[in-house]
């Protein structure tokens, strides 16, 4: 079973960073989404590999590989391994990126409708609620499947395997940004993904 890990964007993507990153002020809060997501996805892969699972980094390049190429790569893996699934790792944002904003919290996204992707998303939401104590989990309901948000993002709708996209708090909220840049925040996010992925695998075996 191949766990396909995708990270959002690349070093040539404009914007996609904390307001301080854009303005050059306060380097201790410097966050570039692609760089952060690259680190987190590689660390998730490392933990999964140590636990005996088979992670695959979809974009080893540092540049922003087009979504069409990412989808083609994932679909080639799925053609060889029908148990494969994809997790795309991002950081959320609000506004034009020039200043700190109020929206905050963690969320997971799937395509519209109920599919196997919703099951994967559900396990991630459960782990998020356990892991991010005192933090906002942006979710529709904790009573049943369908806790994720839905959108026709290309990385979700154009791949044939189950796929989710996690938005790991807001790079435009100063408290969220501090948290995800901290060692504890990074460890929490890695733990949430690893445990959610493993619990999903155990459920579908």
Properties at a glance:
205 residues; alpha/beta; Aminopeptidase; six-stranded mixed sheet; 7 helices; 6 strands; globular
- Oligomer kind: single chain
User: Per DSSP, what share of the residues sits in E-state strands of 2 or more residues?
Assistant: 15-25%
Mean pLDDT: 92
Which CATH C-level class is it? Alpha Beta
Order of helices and strands: EHHEHEEHEHEHH
What topology, given as strand order, has the largest sheet? 2-1-3-6-4-5
Report the strand count. 6
The profile of the biggest β sheet is:
6 strands, mixed
Poorly predicted segments: 142-146
Shape: globular
CATH topology, which one?
Aminopeptidase
How many independent structural domains?
1
Residues in helix, %: 40-55%
CA gyration radius, whole angstroms: 16 Å
Please report the distance between the alpha carbons of the first and last residues.
10 Å
Please work out how many helical segments DSSP would assign.
7
Care to describe what's here?
The protein is of the alpha/beta class and 205 residues long. It has one domain: 3-Layer(aba) Sandwich (Aminopeptidase), CATH 3.40.630. It is 42% helix and 16% strand. It contains seven helices and six strands; from the N terminus they run E-H-H-E-H-E-E-H-E-H-E-H-H. It has helices at 19-23, 33-50, 67-80, 116-131, 154-157, 174-181, 183-204; strands at 2-7, 54-57, 85-92, 107-110, 149-150, 163-170. The protein has a six-stranded mixed beta sheet with strand order 2-1-3-6-4-5, sandwiched between helices. Helix 4 packs antiparallel against helix 7 (183-204). The longest helix is centred in the C-terminal third of the chain and has 22 residues, at 183-204. It is globular, with a radius of gyration of 16 Å. The N and C termini lie close together (10 Å). The model is unreliable at 142-146 (pLDDT under 50).
């Amino acid at each position: 079973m191949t766990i396909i890990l995708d990270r959002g964007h690349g070093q040539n993507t404009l914007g996609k960073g904390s307001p301080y990153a854009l303005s050059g002020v306060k380097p201790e809060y410097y966050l570039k989404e692609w760089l952060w997501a690259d680190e987190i996805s590689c660390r998730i892969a490392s933990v999964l590999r140590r636990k005996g699972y088979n992670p695959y980094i979809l974009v080893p390049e540092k540049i922003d590989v087009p979504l069409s190429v990412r989808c083609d790569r994932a679909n080639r893996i799925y053609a060889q391994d029908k148990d494969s699934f994809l997790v795309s790792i991002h950081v959320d944002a609000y506004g034009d990126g020039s200043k700190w904003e109020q929206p905050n919290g963690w969320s997971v996204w799937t395509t519209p409708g109920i599919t196997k992707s919703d099951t994967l998303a559900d396990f991630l939401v459960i782990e998020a609620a356990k892991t991010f104590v005192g933090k906002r989990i942006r979710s529709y309901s904790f009573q049943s499947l369908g806790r994720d948000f839905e959108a026709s993002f290309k990385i979700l709708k154009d791949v044939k395997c189950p796929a989710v996209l996690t938005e790991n708090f807001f790079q435009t909220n100063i408290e969220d940004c501090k948290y995800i840049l901290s060692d504890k925040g990074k460890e929490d996010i890695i733990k949430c993904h690893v445990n959610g992925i493993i619990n999903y695998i155990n459920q579908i075996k």
